[in-house]
Amino acid sequence: MYILLDIGFIVFHTVFILFNLFGWMWKATRPWNLATLLLTAFSWFILGIWYGFGYCPCTDWHWQVRQELGYTDMPTSYIEFLAELLTGLDFSTALVDSTTAILFFAALLVSIYVNFRDFEKKRIVS
Description:
126 residues; mainly alpha; 5 helices; 78% helix
């Protein structure tokens, strides 16, 4: 059961991250992309007040599953875990965190821009 949960978390969390980064590219998914980016920001910055900056419930639950499977010494970041899992390399936490922040804020700014642009176009046409 825990193995299936581990695989499920890897698939779901990875797809969620990819959607955060690229969901703004398709007009139909832009509002959902903005919502998931804002949800991520809420988790990192608001829940992070109590649980630590960058807190992600998905990572928290996934690490609990992996602990049940006997994994120890997990990185604090799912992105670091994923990068190391996919490449076999040991990345600096600071490098991963900086890259994550830059890509997140870039995706957020683009998502806000394209959603606002779409809203304005729709408002002008109506």
